[in-house]
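Long-time lurker. I teach an intro course on protein structure, and each term I like to show students one example going from raw sequence to a predicted 3D structure in token notation. This year I'd like something fresh instead of my usual example. Would anyone be willing to generate the tokens for the chain below so I can use it in lecture? Attribution to the forum is fine with me.
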Amino acid sequence: KVQKRDFQQREFDVKGRVVREKSLTVGPKGEFISRRETVNSKFDAQGRAQQTKTAVYGSDGKVVETLVAQNSYDAAGNLQMSKTERYDGASGRLLDTNIVSRTYDALGNVSRQRSTQIHANGKVISESVTDFKDYDLNGNARQTNTTTLRNGLLTTSERTITKVDSLGRSVAEKTLEKD
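-- Reply from a regular --
Happy to contribute to a lecture. Here you go:
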């Protein structure tokens, strides 16, 4: 049964970098769900997008929200930090900022990811830290531990253990959650 359909269109510059991406999601009967348009306006020397701007459109064709992201990479080319500011589409007012930072092990696997959501007034709304452990030969983390704080209070702490087959496909997953 078809739940939704996604359509994407990409435009490239002469260096082969994606400079514009448009996406449209429709429901099973062709009804509008969402439309986004992303423009990558700044790249590093390796061609990775450092600055993007995404417009999210409502069913009336008007911009509902705008996302402005800035990305930085480590020497190995891994995404080190991404800062995304979310603006109201009608007023242009900053709503919140989401900052994601990652650290990596010697093999280039993510070892820790920290996500922080900050309200426009500067107050931290939520923060989560995920530790990734026990990678298999295909680069899949077999265990993750996530702690989430909302408004400074611990809301969830969960541990997920994933078993994968010889092809690297997830065959079993167990999540232990504490509220």
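Some talking points for your students: The mean pLDDT is 90. The chain has no helices and twelve strands.
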